[in-house]
Amino acid sequence: MTPYRLILIVFFLMNLQKILLQFQFKRGNPGFYLVFCGFWSFLALWLNHDLALGLETGGINFIELTAPFFIVAAYAKDLRRYEKMIKILMIQVCLLLTISLPETVTGFNWFRTLTDAIFGGWHVHIDPRFGFDRAMATFDHPIINGVVSSSIIGFVYFCTRWWMTAFPVVATATSLSSGAIASIMTQFMLMGWERFVKVRKRWLILFGILFGIYLAAEFISNRSGVMAILSVLVFSPGTAYNRYYIWIYGTENVANNPFFGLGLNDWERPSYMGASIDNYWLVIMMRYGLPALISYVIFISIICRQLFRYRVKDKKLTALRRGWLTGLAGLCVSAGTVHYWNTAYIYFNFYIGLGFALIPLLRAAAMEERENKRKKASPPAEA
Questions:
Q1: d(Cα 306, Cα 203) in Å, to the nearest integer?
Q2: Segment among 83-97, 271-285, 369-383 with least mean pLDDT
Q3: Within a 10 A sphere around the Cβ of 315, how many other Cβ atoms?
Q4: What is the tally of helices (H) and strands (E) in the chain?
Q5: 3-state class of 319 per DSSP?
Q6: Do residues 48 and 261 make contact, with C-beta atoms less than 8 angstroms apart?
Q7: Contact, 271 vs 252, CB < 8 A?
């Protein structure tokens, strides 16, 4: 029972009625699909194991899935609070550098050493890369440190000065994680496209280019397109092949158990492969079945669609919208190469909540702009 779980449980119980009301289907309501995903995961664990494990493990998963999302919606109800929350995230990532930079150079994590001495426990050093130690900072693994640090690059670029992106980029790089580096690459590609390409339907053009690159890799390369892309996103060919075969055998397990997954049971694979599944989306499918992943993807898609729907002239809101969408793209790409667990799992759902909380702010600004436009267009009343 970690401190963050205690906070989530208290919030969940205090807002239980509001959260469960989301289970009423309403068109365009992302909360329904999130709650459905949590309920389906409980059902999958119950059917694969027993009711006791379904209530215990499925229950805490339901809380970790929904509570972070609704916490943001409950707090960030106006632009001032929303901006304050983003600034806190930026400051936190900058403060992580006081831990991760010394750890990368010396291998000594003063924060985890201190907390282990006070609260008990231990932390394990991960094998170094390129002569540097992989920094985990305050987290359980360097991958999580890199993913969380990379998520605010878009916010920093669009909402502050561009050169300040150096801080989250360096914080991300200290993890020496291929998944986190893939997040950096994705976000810089999107920021560059937004900055230099000013044509109509530019995002459809970008998706078309990316799809064309995939097809070219599929037909021209002497290996599959997925394998060619993975070799770019990860540090070594061995890691790329490992993730490729995780996907191949993992999807076979999904095909054999499409509705309720495997639960917490071990998955079928060759004896030479480890049990680790370095793919967040694949883990959801394998544990809880396709309905859980589909509802989760629909939940994220609805939020993105509504954010694209409300285009406003307010520079602050526009910057926040672009920053969130850029960070989400980085997190989603990283999720294809790493698994989000513990704090990373909660943070990902919290981050999606940031996008949901932005929707009413954009909607209110769009309505105000339309009303002002209508007033200007209407003829003045006769005296």
A1: 16
A2: 369-383
A3: 10
A4: 17, 0
A5: helix
A6: yes
A7: no
